[in-house]
Design a protein that fits this description.
Length: about 290
């Protein structure tokens, strides 16, 4: 094995241990470019030198920096508008009918990156004030990247980020200019909260979420890890809830915890299980 191959394996193992993502041969090309800023910070030139540093004892902070650099936090507001149309036309009307007695909705944006997906959801509700008057809307955004979660919590976006996916009217209605950047308003931030979380861990609130959006999170998992992720999501969703995946993802042939919905190619419903089989899992999640 060449030194470069060994170095990539060390970094790939680190990424898999921290996030579940696999550093496949097809993804190796982006490693050096993704780590270039870290190379400059450390005064090194290549992956081999970085791998040697990672092998030294007590380099947990460096390991965290490496993983953060490798994560793909690409996102933007209303990413793939057709998906949000499916939510508006099918999912939210269904939930509005079924949750009318409590007037409470809980949504989980898993793999939320820097928060644009969660805030896009909040804008949908804010643009229909009469429809959702008196409702409690809770949108939780989680991501394995602590750096991304910090940005999401700040609600502060650059001029470039704010122009991606929203109209000028939405920008002016839901954001305020702040020293050359744009700050999300309390109108939408009040519906959202963010926390660092690995989707391979048990969900933040077992059995609570009415809608889980988990788009483009499972692409780099191997089949076994993907099945674990589906189990974790399933334990967090209500019995009549909804799951939305990304365009390149499906439950078919991957898990028996979800089935395709009758509307929308990206929408899925939980498969009901014997409660006696679920109880031990829920007890473990809250213990």
């Amino acid at each position: 094995m060449e030194i470069d191959d060994a170095s990539h394996r060390i970094i790939g193992d680190l990424l898999a241990q921290r996030t579940g993502q696999q550093l496949t041969e097809g993804r190796r090309w982006r490693v050096s470019s993704a780590l270039s800023g870290l190379f400059r910070e450390l005064g090194i030139e290549n992956v081999d030198q970085l791998a040697c540093m990672l092998e030294r004892p007590g380099e947990q902070r460096l390991a965290t920096k490496v993983v953060e650099s490798l994560l793909n936090n690409e996102t933007y507001f209303f990413r793939d508008h057709a998906y949000f149309s499916q939510l508006s036309n099918h999912v939210l009307p269904d939930l509005a009918r079924n949750r009318e007695p409590t007037k409470r909705l809980s949504i989980w944006s898993a793999g939320c990156s820097t928060g644009q997906e969660a805030l896009s959801l909040a804008m949908i509700f804010a643009e229909q004030p009469s429809r959702w008057k008196g409702w409690t809307i809770e949108i939780l955004g989680t991501d394995v990247s602590g750096k991304a979660v910090e940005t999401a919590r700040s609600g502060l976006y650059t001029q470039f980020e704010i122009q991606r996916g929203i109209s000028v009217a939405q920008m002016l209605n839901f954001f305020a200019e702040c020293r050359g950047n744009w700050q999300a308003s309390d109108k939408i931030r009040s519906m959202t909260r963010f926390q660092q979380h690995n989707i391979l861990d048990y969900p933040p609130s077992p059995g609570r979420f009415d809608l889980v959006m988990c788009r483009n999170v499972l692409l780099y998992f191997d089949p076994a890890t993907r099945a674990t992720a589906f189990d974790r999501v399933a334990s967090g969703i209500t019995h009549d809830g909804w799951l939305m995946l990304g365009a390149g993802e499906t439950v078919v042939g991957q898990t028996d915890r979800f089935k395709p919905a009758t509307c929308g190619s990206s929408l899925y419903r939980p498969v009901q299980r014997d409660i006696s089989a679920v109880q031990p899992q829920l007890r473990a999640a809250v213990s």
